[in-house]
Design goal:
With 86 residues, the chain is an all-alpha fold. It has one domain. Helix content is 45%, strand content 0%.
Length: 86
């Protein structure tokens, strides 16, 4: 038999407060990117990965760095360029 741990119950109001704090911190620097901020937080909460695409200059990297710094975690960036294609 294997030991299984059951997920701990999460207080929804505490989670909402934590998410709002993350948003508030990021909004101190980033303006007008509400959708990407919400999607990045959703990916963070679901332990997922994110590929952010867009034209240069819309603060993609800065937004990801700010969220990582806000939740005290690491940040890694891979920039795809044509020379990386097979």
């Amino acid at each position: 038999m294997t030991d299984q741990t059951l997920p701990q119950r999460i207080d929804v109001s505490e989670l909402q407060q934590a998410v709002q704090q993350i948003k508030d911190e990021v909004h101190k620097v980033i303006v007008g990117q509400d959708d990407i901020i919400e999607l990045l937080i959703a990916a963070l909460l679901s332990e997922g990965h994110v590929l952010i695409e867009g034209v240069p200059g819309i603060a993609k990297t800065l937004t990801a760095k700010l969220i990582a710094r806000t939740v005290n975690t690491s940040f890694s960036r891979i920039q795809f360029t044509p020379d990386l294609m097979p």
